[in-house]
Amino acid sequence: MHVVPSGEAYRDVDPMVDSTVAMTAEALQRSAVWQRMVDSSLPLMGRAAYLEQHWEGLRVLVQALETAGWAPELRAEMAEKVEALGGALDKAHATARWRDHHVTMPSMLQFRRRVNEMVESRDSVALDAHAIVRLAAVAACPIAGEPTAVSFPPVRSVHTEDQEEYFAEELSAAMLMVLAHGSDVCRSYPRQQRSTSCAVTAAAIRRALG
């Protein structure tokens, strides 16, 4: 268990965060789901389902941090991106009703279980690590186009060398969970021929995220 110590100075993990943001962007851009969005072989509903995983992941983490009362700056940044992604998906679906029955992939169920474990064990270090990676995924923008502007507040839960090592491990685990969403989407939505309508919708989502 990695609980926030009261009044203890935190370690500077900004270099680790910066490298993780860069690695997350590179990993997403090389992923199969990203390439399928670029060449328009991923159906429109597959694109929407992929963005819904990013939306849901951020939303789950915001709720977890609110429950724990931790990381207000990080929580505020994630809440803002939840709204941005939600608005983009409203436009993609042409309705907000998708929120009542959005797609939940197996990897998202696994992520939700992991978040519950972190909250129950009051594991602030792991929660912060997963929050950083989820924000990094949105910063990369999970579609072809300009990156989304994201602010990364300082991580204040890492206080010891052991916690710093654990933070690094959780960053890696979080990245694998994010990449798993793309694998689930690729398996769930067969390839299609290039579609002009999909390209138009992708452009609309990019504009909404910007």
TrEMBL record:
It comes from the Bacteria. This is Uncharacterized protein. It comes from Candidatus Corynebacterium gallistercoris.
